[in-house]
Amino acid sequence: MKILRYLIQKEFIQILRNKALLPMMTILPIVQLILLSTAASNEVKNVDIVIVDLDQTESSRLLKRKIIANNRFSLIANPFSTKEANQFLQANKADIALVIPNDFEKDFLRREKPSLQIIANAINGQQATVGSGYLSNIIYSFNENLIQEYIYLQALNKKQKENPIQIVPRNWYNEELKYTHFMAPGILAELTALLTIVLSAMNIVREREIGTIEQINVTPIKKWQFILGKLIPFLCVGIVLLVVGILTSKIVFDIPIVGNVGLLFGYAIINLIAVLGLGLLISNFANTQQQAIFVAFFFILIFILMCGLFTPIDSMPKWAQYFTIPNPLAQFVSVSRKILMKGSTIWDIRFEIFYTIILAIVFNSLAIWSYKKQE
Amino acid sequence: MRIENKNIIEVENLTKKFGDFTAVNAISFTVKKGEIFGFLGANGAGKTTAMRMLIGLSIPTSGTGKVANFDIYKEAEKIKKNIGYMSQKFSLYNDLTIRENIRFYGGIYGLSKSEIKQKTEKILVDLDLKSVANKLVDSLPLGWKQRLSFAVSMIHDPEIVFLDEPTGGVDPYVRRQFWETIYDAANQGRTIFVTTHYMDEVEYCDRVSIMVDGKIEALDTPKNLKKQFQATNMNDVFLKLAR
Prior knowledge:
- Chain A is mainly alpha-helical.
- Chain A is 66% helix and 6% strand.
- Chain A has a four-stranded mixed beta sheet, with helices on both faces.
- The mean pLDDT of chain A is 86.
- Chain B has one domain: P-loop containing nucleotide triphosphate hydrolases (Rossmann fold, 3-Layer(aba) Sandwich).
- The interface between A and B is medium-sized, with 25 and 33 residues.
């Protein structure tokens, strides 16, 4: 235990004395956090639309007004033919074209179910699907309103009134669907994992490069002491970054903190131990810092792109979903959202805790095992 | 007087192979307690590899060996408690101060706080480093760095000290100074196992072994070696063997 103290003390002196490392650990991640959480948005806010109104009636104009009134759509042009509308899509000037056919109003009043055509420019799949989703919703409610009016007129005659079923969605845990609420904790988890894995992956191999590891290897130090002596200082760095990051997110984005922050940090410690174990494992196998960085980035990229932050885990192929279980970042993102936004308790995140503990044990045992004092 | 009639290193048929290449080929020798044992050889002759097997950094391919009465296969960690090692690569932390380096190595050898304090004072006074104790090691001249790392390698009072080309790259005056500290250490009863390239340094050793292509070709006192090879100095002996 006493030996461990000296190892940790030395590591802290080195971290604090490194002029490049300190800003890298504090200022840069905060800048990234603010920048990425605001910019990296999946929300589709502006859909460029062209509307071809072949009907030119009261109803068709009403529908058009309804669409334009919605601030997500900007009307680019009113071409007179489908062909012309296609040219707008071709030139990438519009995301969606809506074609209102000739006998739209007439068919509607005759209850012949007129059909509208939506042509979406699916080069940007997200824009296209979400955009046509919005559009369908508007058309649906337009439809409902018309039918209701129509039924109402009929009902007046029959002196009775029908109430069609209405769907009112409510977004639980993030009532206003604020994107930053959802992104900031996830991005913070990513940045912390990135920083700690890089720091730890570079560390042991750096000692190998400068030759100090040899001097340590001729001492009777135990392997676990050495690994723990590396792990604890970087764990502290990770925690500090998390504290600063959560404070920043609270101040800048006013993210909700519904659950127990202590529980979040308790979980974060287990998670960081797992990530650091992987970093140290990489460091043991690398001969140069360059190798270590490349391998670390291989893992980091997979972790980040498959953590459920940018693409929902539920929409991944089945095999990929299983792949997110040994991904500490996916567990972290899930837990941070559950605790911060939903107020989940320890029982709600038991699976994440369980998987992460297993990861921490596996990575760190491998790190201790692969650290060779003797060749 | 200084040298006791007791073997502190015993090696028999020690061999290390890297794939097809035999770096150390069945070497056998003994070192007596208190001896200054010179380990000579051309670059790539296998000196460092042989030394690394003795200090528990490298597992031998075959052969047997005992260092400080501990088996080099099974008791490498016990050997490490009883030996000091100074590698040819400078191995103190450049980004720590002199005092912090001494404290760190004292700490990982399990010395108590008061022992570390006492050792630090002694090293700083002996090496005349008191005025720069809180400066980064990086700022020291090479000669001072090497004397410091020699002192640090003995912080836990080891029975044997292994020095791998300790005087590489320093001027003759500093080398002379360095050998004085080696003698001091030997006079305190430590066994010194030293590899070197400098033939003048060889004359300071009690016994010398010369390695050529992984084998020990000669082993005796410098005086006897010169007689055996009919040479006027160790340089000629070395050239005759290593060619």
